[in-house]
Design goal:
6-stranded parallel sheet; two-stranded antiparallel ribbon; 8 helices; globular
Length: 286
């Protein structure tokens, strides 16, 4: 059985047997072993951790604390989700004088008197959540009266005011800092203000551009309509000219083209024949 525990310890710490056990501060063995006999391994295995401050052996089926190791530096012990009924005096025999936080939640402790050995320790926080003892009337006041050093029972003080763990406090502080940073950055608000400034500075937005496009289309349509009206007026004028020609039986005289002025001038004699100007000049010399 000790071999199973030893393997679980090495797996939890990723050790090859040559690790510095004395430097380990936290050891978590939750669910690492199933104790069908309900017993802890030999004390030598866990007593190697001379500087251990936080030990968690939850949900392994413990029912006896008889061989609990002597770890004088231990401050926080988690034995939740096991089958412990009594035998808390073995924690006192182990010399856990430095222990301040003990979690026995979801165990089988039924009587307040079974907690009496814990009065010899200097516990500040004790958790008995889901233990049968919590069903006893006035159990809170009785436990506080039994363990004089106790400040918190089930994460609540003697007045029933809930308190948070140090880890939860740190998480809340981190969340508050993140929220403050988000507000300080003002990325969303900044973009909105920038857009407003651009619009106020004379930059047309999408609606203005669409209005301008509609105006151009309307002007183009009106121009086309005017052009069609002018073409219709020209056609009407041509029709009127044709009507006048038909009525008078004459073709309107149109101005001669400029090329006519370059032709030789000719004159018409009395008989209607054309007479060349050069021939008239030669006759006069005779």
């Amino acid at each position: 059985m000790d071999e199973v525990w030893e393997k679980a310890v090495k797996t939890a710490l990723d050790l090859d047997g040559q690790g510095d056990y004395a430097a380990v501060k936290t050891l978590t063995l939750d669910g690492a072993v199933k104790c069908y006999q309900g017993k802890l391994p030999s004390q030598n295995l866990l007593e190697k951790f001379k500087g251990l401050e936080h030990l968690s052996i939850a949900n392994v089926g413990l029912s006896s604390l008889e061989r609990f190791p002597c770890i004088t530096t231990l401050q926080k012990l988690n034995l939740s989700d096991n089958r412990i009924v009594r035998g808390l005096e073995f924690l006192v025999k182990a010399g856990l004088d430095s222990s301040r936080d003990l979690d026995l939640s979801n165990n089988r402790i039924q009587a307040v008197e079974d907690l009496a050995p814990l009065a010899e320790l200097k516990l500040e926080s004790l958790d008995l959540y889901e233990c049968p003892v919590t069903k006893i009337k006035d159990y809170r006041s009785r436990v506080f009266g039994l363990i004089k050093s106790l400040q918190y029972l089930g994460k609540m003080d003697v007045n029933g005011v809930e308190v948070l763990d140090s880890d939860e406090d740190e998480e809340d502080d981190d969340e508050e800092e993140d929220e403050e940073e988000d507000v300080g950055c003002g990325e969303v608000d900044g973009e909105g203000q920038l857009g407003k400034k651009m619009n106020n500075g004379g930059v047309a937005d999408e609606e203005d551009e669409s209005d301008a496009d509609e105006g151009v289309e309307e002007d183009g349509e009106s121009a086309d309509e005017d052009g069609e009206d002018e073409d219709e007026n020209d056609e009407d004028d041509e029709e009127e000219d044709e009507d006048e020609e038909d009525q008078n039986g004459e073709v309107p005289v149109r101005p001669s083209s400029p090329s006519h002025s370059k032709r030789k001038r000719s004159e018409v004699d009395d008989n209607g024949d054309d007479v060349d100007n050069d021939s008239i000049a030669d006759a006069a010399s005779l």
